[in-house]
Amino acid sequence: MDVLADILRSMRLTGSVFLESELRSQWCYVSPAPQAIMDFLSPRSEILMAFHLVTEGQCLAWMRDGGEVELSAGDMIFFPQGDSHFLAGSGQDNERLRAIEVKCENLRSGIDVQRYGVKKETQFDRAAKVVCGFVAFEGGQGLSSLLTGMPRFLRIPRGDALAEWLRVSMTTCLAESACVTVGSSVVVQRISELMLVEAMRYYVKEAERIKGSILLVSNDRFVQRALSLMHQDPAAPWTVEQIAKAVGLSRSALAGRFVASIGEPPMQYLVRWRISLAASALLATEDCLAQIAAKVGYESETSFNRAFKREFGIPPAAWRKQEKPMVQHERRR
């Protein structure tokens, strides 16, 4: 079973913003903290991903604790965990520039880039044009574990088939976001979801070559088989002993491998996966709580209520009443 596809299907778009920035010479900016952007787009957001496509010129990108990468026209950089990052003009002393702190409210109207004394472009100080996208999701139980330990950003070079597809996708989202027409929000939503899937497929492919990546979850056949069992039939009355026996390990061996690969014990992962599926059902269907509880593996509505409240802080009925109108409003926009 394709566990990654199963996880991606459980993710729900909560908000996105696309903008184009013309960045003159002697510039440097730092993006807002990911939690601030998620709160700005939707308080329901749990995962943020950032994309930058250079359409003209050159620039540098880096994080506070990571090395820099140079980007040219046609290149894209992808931040799968939405980490705060810097973009700056190439061919300049960036250490002497004060980084402009972008505010979340600027994301709706573009970034106001300050200029530092250079009044005209030279051969070495030319403007860069960058299309930026920030996409937020909720759900996707297991994706955060997949991302942990993998590269914090990934450059997708010009000429790559995915880079071209993402270029068209981002410019389409930018155009649709700039105009208010029938169905524009649906177009942006669907493309944003596809961008996530395509970027993650590329990301996973690249990360498989990195020693020590959390993608040992894909290479450890025992953990992979355990995940497949839980995803194929989440409602089954699983125990660690049953899963361990099914994959050919002892209980302690499976638990150790699972924690090493996923970051949490098998049963904790299963509970969170069940609750993630239940949350999707609460928003997407009119099924009663007892029906949803049974579908995700709870024998009683009471035990389902307790598990859901531990994860979300409120009972499922109250969560549905709170969240469903917001989702319906976003779909109508």
From TrEMBL:
PANTHER family: HTH-TYPE TRANSCRIPTIONAL ACTIVATOR RHAS, HTH-TYPE TRANSCRIPTIONAL ACTIVATOR RHAS-RELATED. One of its GO terms (molecular function) is DNA-binding transcription factor activity. This is Helix-turn-helix protein. Keywords: DNA-binding, Transcription, Transcription regulation. The lineage of its organism: Bacteria, Pseudomonadati, Pseudomonadota, Betaproteobacteria, Burkholderiales. The keyword Transcription applies. SMART domains: HTH_ARAC. It comes from the Bacteria. Residues 224-322 form the HTH araC/xylS-type domain. InterPro entries: AraC_lig (IPR032783), AraC_XylS_family_regulators (IPR050204), Homeodomain-like_sf (IPR009057), HTH_AraC (IPR018060), HTH_AraC-typ_CS (IPR018062), RmlC-like_jellyroll (IPR014710), RmlC_Cupin_sf (IPR011051), Tscrpt_reg_AraC-type_HTH (IPR020449). The keyword Cell membrane does not apply.
